[in-house]
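Retry 2 of 3 after timeout on previous attempt. Resubmitting structure tokens to design endpoint.
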């Protein structure tokens, strides 16, 4: 709870000096005068206009409208009267402001889509959820609603304070003696100076149940009361997503509540298999016509492409906004898009600010109900005192009349002998009457009261009693009337005893309050309109994307794109195929996979950072388009290069990412460790010194790994020799490399690719069966892969291949060679290798790529037309300097899903 400081009262310490009353001019500080004047103005707006009173939940204008209607006799049983009648009465007697402000406030009290329980029963056009304004007050009619009468009940019994109106011609109540906790039930909203209030409406039955529980258990907590008050209950229904905002608001008085429209998916009548979304309830304080217009705008701008038509079929029966979908569109995707892009999802920022004892305060649920309970206690106490005074005064009259009827002859004689009324009254007051005991017996009072009457003896009339006797009709002297007087006396005695008991016992007082609250509940409580759904309402971008397969291609030059599979139509074997991308002649596809739009793609940089993207985020492009540069798409830091790209179908247990650095540090990390990724990247591998990340691959925990070094060493070991560890670790040693050596490649074993292909800088290489590389323990020096002799040169890379694969070799001078794996003769592990590509003196091979398999209907060769090279070295073309990584995916990153599309 937070208190807001109010300006100090005049003549109190801290107040500005007041000018003398003799008219003498006194200089004052303009800063102090501005401060004081502004605070006075601010508090006037806060207390007198914009912020509701916590006791009755009404602002002054609403209170004056209801009181004026009550004064005009416009109760539910009366006929409707022109709204101008109420507006005129309010303006003329209590609220000297503009008529538009009064009428607008009255219109809101009558709108069943603005108030959960309307306080004005309106007849005529009072506006609509489409934002249509109400008709002028000369056309509409109004009276108080049935529930509004409970706000004014007992107001004539001196249970609230009255103050003079603006011209001292009348008095008005400072608060209404409401029996309903209106601050929570109907809520409120207003903007003052420096503060605002925004209180949502709640269900009457729930709030009354919580109030009763608070009365019975004053020490209860907010959490106890939350068992009764589920949350806001908006007049327009709809849904509340998540309880977090509700609980925060109920505990602190502030919170953010997510509201969603209620939508249902139906089969479109007469449209075959097409479906339609029907909106039947919209969030509180939203405009249906604007929502409809916004949907049409999104359709025209193609921001939502799954909608064929949107129309408003609403009528007096309720809201019905129909959104027809195109064929084969997933309705939930469109629903998520509508929630994200329109007011079909919006939020309600709760600020439970109200005036408490003249000060604005932000209250939690318990504090709000405490104020109402205290108000009811004060109202009932004052009402009881008033009723006790009235009952005692009436009993005094009845007792006097009863005494007169017991000694009729004496009373009549005394009156007849009196000269005038004043003499008769004085004579009656001096007359000793002895019939008190007989009257009390006749009234059937208890023995104790009879004994007290007997002891009292003579009875002298008061002035009020004497006056009542003089005004009494002779018919009161009949026997039947005497019995009625005795019965009335007995009832009044019982009522007085009851009222005194209420004032004397606090528990009885609260029992009466509870009884009245339960009576209100039985008369007006209804079912909730708003459903609370215990889900997080945050809509991720993924929820707006229809899940479907896409073909993702990555080129050697570092470009990426995704293409719909329909672009690769199926063709018969031997066909010419289609152009894949408008790439430069030296570019080609090095990695291709088919993945769901909701799958992940991990981009590892050479510094060990990993950037995570969803497939749907990859730029979509035509089959012959080049795509987008990966470095720009991912948003890497200056100087970073792409070291590896790994497709992750789903972040789940049992899957791992294995990375290797050039210094031979290997690490295995569970995919789930990467779940909380960030846009700017996260640490994937801790890189020490001048080491660099070289490669990464997705495994299932039971694979084998083959590591190759620049000087021709290799090691093959089981993946389970590498324990799983966190992202921010260095890893363990995969192979013991010499100071002048480094790792150049890593391959994950694949049953479909039984050969190891190693290529050296001078164009020599060899293809060897994987089985010739025995399994070893991790961390050793390994065995010979190929002789990195002066003839062969250092090893460039190693790939696992099969006979049907094709490879691409690239030199540092831009020469490229594309050849089939079958062209490379299979040799043993100890062989020197064969010449694969001729290089000129001073030229060296810098990269080995295995060509990605194409989906059905794509061109069989490299995308972009030219094959980019020939057996004799091909045409020269200029390439940027290459550090060996190639700027594309390394070996081992292939995933299931490559190959032909059905």
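Retry 2 succeeded. Sequence:
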């Amino acid at each position: 709870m937070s208190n807001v400081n109010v300006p100090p009262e005049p003549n109190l310490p801290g107040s500005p000096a007041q000018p003398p009353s003799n008219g003498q001019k006194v200089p004052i500080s303009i800063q102090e005068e501005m401060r004081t004047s502004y605070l006075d103005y601010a508090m006037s707006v806060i207390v007198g206009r914009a912020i509701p009173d916590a006791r009755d939940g009404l602002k002054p204008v609403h209170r004056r409208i209801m009181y004026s209607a009550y004064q005009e006799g416009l109760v539910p049983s009366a006929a409707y009267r022109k709204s101008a009648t109420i507006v005129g009465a309010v303006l003329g007697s209590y609220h000297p402001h503009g008529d538009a402000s009064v009428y607008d406030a009255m219109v809101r009290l009558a709108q069943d889509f603005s108030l959960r329980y309307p306080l004005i029963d309106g007849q005529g056009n009072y506006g609509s959820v489409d934002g249509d304004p109400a008709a002028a007050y000369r056309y509409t009619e109004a009276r108080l609603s049935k529930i509004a009468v409970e706000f004014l009940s007992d107001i004539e019994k001196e249970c609230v304070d009255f103050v003079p109106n603006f011209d001292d011609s009348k008095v008005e109540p400072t608060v209404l003696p409401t029996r309903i906790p209106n601050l929570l039930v109907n809520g409120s909203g207003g903007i003052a100076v420096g503060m605002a209030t925004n209180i949502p409406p709640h269900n009457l039955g729930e709030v009354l149940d919580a109030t009763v529980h608070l009365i019975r258990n004053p020490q209860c907590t907010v959490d106890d009361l939350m068992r009764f008050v589920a949350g806001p209950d908006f007049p327009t229904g709809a849904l509340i997503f998540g309880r977090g905002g509700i609980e925060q608001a109920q505990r602190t008085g502030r919170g953010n509540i997510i509201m969603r429209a209620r939508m249902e998916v139906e089969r479109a009548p007469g449209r075959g298999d097409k479906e339609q979304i029907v909106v039947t309830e919209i969030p509180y304080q939203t405009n249906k016509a604007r929502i409809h217009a916004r949907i049409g705008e999104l359709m025209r701008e193609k921001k939502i492409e799954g909608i064929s038509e949107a129309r408003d079929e609403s009528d007096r029966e309720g809201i019905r906004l129909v959104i027809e979908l195109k064929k084969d569109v997933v309705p939930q995707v469109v629903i998520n898009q509508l929630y994200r892009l329109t007011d079909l999802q919006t939020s309600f920022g709760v600020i439970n600010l109200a005036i408490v004892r003249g000060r604005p305060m932000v209250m939690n649920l318990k504090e709000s109900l405490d104020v109402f309970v205290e108000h009811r206690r004060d109202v009932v106490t004052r009402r009881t005192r008033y009723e006790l005074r009235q009952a005692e005064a009436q009993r005094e009259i009845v007792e006097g009349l009863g005494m007169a009827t017991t000694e009729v002859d004496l009373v009549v004689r005394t009156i007849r002998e009196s000269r005038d009324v004043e003499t008769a009254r004085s004579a009656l007051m001096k007359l000793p009457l002895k019939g008190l005991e007989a009257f009390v017996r006749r009234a059937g009072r208890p023995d104790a009261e009879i004994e007290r009457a007997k002891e009292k003896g003579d009875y002298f009339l008061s002035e009020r009693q004497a006056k009542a006797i003089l005004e009494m009709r002779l018919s009161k002297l009949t026997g039947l009337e005497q019995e009625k007087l005795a019965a009335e006396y007995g009832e009044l005695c019982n009522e007085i005893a009851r009222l005194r008991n209420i004032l004397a016992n606090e528990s009885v007082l609260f029992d009466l309050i509870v009884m009245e609250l339960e009576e209100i509940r039985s008369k007006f409580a209804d079912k909730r309109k708003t459903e609370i759904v215990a889900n997080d309402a945050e809509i991720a971008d993924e929820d707006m994307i229809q899940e479907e397969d896409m073909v993702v291609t990555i080129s050697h030059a570092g470009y990426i794109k995704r293409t719909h599979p329909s672009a690769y139509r199926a063709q018969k074997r031997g066909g010419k195929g289609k152009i894949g991308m408008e790439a430069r002649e030296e570019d080609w596809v090095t990695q291709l996979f088919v993945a769901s739009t909701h799958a992940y793609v991990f981009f590892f940089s050479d510094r060990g950072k990993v950037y995570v993207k969803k497939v749907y985020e990859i730029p979509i492009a035509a089959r012959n388009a080049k795509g987008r540069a990966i470095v720009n798409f991912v948003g890497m830091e200056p100087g970073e290069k792409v070291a590896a790209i790994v497709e992750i179908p789903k972040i789940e247990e049992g899957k791992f990412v294995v990375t290797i650095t050039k210094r031979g540090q290997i690490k295995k990390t569970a995919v789930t460790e990467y779940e909380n990724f960030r846009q700017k990247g996260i640490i994937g591998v801790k890189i020490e010194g001048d080491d660099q990340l070289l490669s990464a691959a997705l495994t299932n925990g039971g694979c084998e790994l083959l590591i190759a070094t620049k000087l021709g060493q290799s090691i093959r070991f089981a993946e389970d020799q590498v324990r799983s560890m966190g992202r921010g670790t260095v890893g363990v040693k995969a192979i013991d490399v010499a100071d002048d050596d480094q790792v150049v490649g890593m391959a994950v074993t694949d049953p479909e690719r039984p050969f190891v292909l190693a290529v050296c800088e001078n164009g020599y290489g060899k293809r060897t069966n994987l089985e010739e590389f025995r399994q070893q323990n991790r961390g050793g020096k390994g065995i010979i892969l190929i002789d990195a002799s002066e003839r062969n040169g250092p090893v460039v890379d190693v790939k696992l291949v099969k006979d049907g694969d094709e490879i691409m070799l690239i030199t540092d001078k831009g020469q490229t060679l594309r050849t089939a794996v079958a062209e490379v003769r299979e040799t043993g592990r100890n062989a020197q290798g064969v010449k694969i590509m001729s290089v000129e003196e001073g030229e060296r091979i810098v990269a080995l790529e295995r060509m990605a398999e194409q989906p059905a209907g794509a061109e069989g060769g490299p995308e972009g037309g030219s094959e980019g090279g020939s057996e004799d070295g091909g045409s020269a073309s200029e390439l940027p300097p290459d550090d060996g990584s190639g700027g594309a995916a390394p070996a081992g990153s292939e995933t299931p899903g490559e190959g032909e599309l059905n």
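Attempt log closed. The radius of gyration is 45 Å.
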